Amino acid sequence: MRNYKRILLKLSGESLQGHENFGLSPAVLQSYAEQIRAAAESGVQIGIVIGGGNIFRGLSGAKKGFDRVKGDQMGMLATIINSLALQSALEDNGVRCKVLTSVRMEPIGEYYSKARALEYLEAGHVVIIGGGTSNPYFTTDSASALRAIEIEADVLLKGTRVDGVYTADPEKDPAAVKFDEISFEEILDRRLRIMDLTAFTLCRENRMPIIVFDMDTPGNLGRVLAGEAIGTYVKP
Question: Is the pTM of the predicted complex or chain greater than 0.70?
């Protein structure tokens, strides 16, 4: 069993749309809020980074004629919309929560700094960090790796629609085999893709362990924190 004092939870923006083709699913937001509330009540300090793919993805926009920098900036705004939606759901569930943004957007959110984030975490708030890294050409995977390292998290939890790391894409290859545990080196050797290379390298060089798990199954976050063999543990 691994005991975590502080975690960085990366949530997929696309997962927030649930069964819809676009936007936000109230049912998914409620499920996430309930799981995060239970984790916070257990005493774990929680930082969160959310993607924006349910609203706008900069790289996809660039392929459709958008300027890449402006497209990525639109994606940053999408992550902040998602951050505010999750904050609202958490507060509706009685969770104290703060949104910090990597670009200045007062009064929508406070400007992010490590010191401010740690201050809120130590005070018992869930801290959602929106806006990605604030720079174009960087994904929210990279933002989650960076923030996990900055806030000195014990682990980066990557909540996705897939229940771990497989030898191949399980949605395309029914013969794909799931790993319960795998090293950074083996992921590189097998050329597996669990996040973009920049994010992966940041975690590898800073010895930040990663757990990839299915956040869409209610209760899975608590099971991961309780030490159950949920998802895949990527060891440094």
Answer: yes
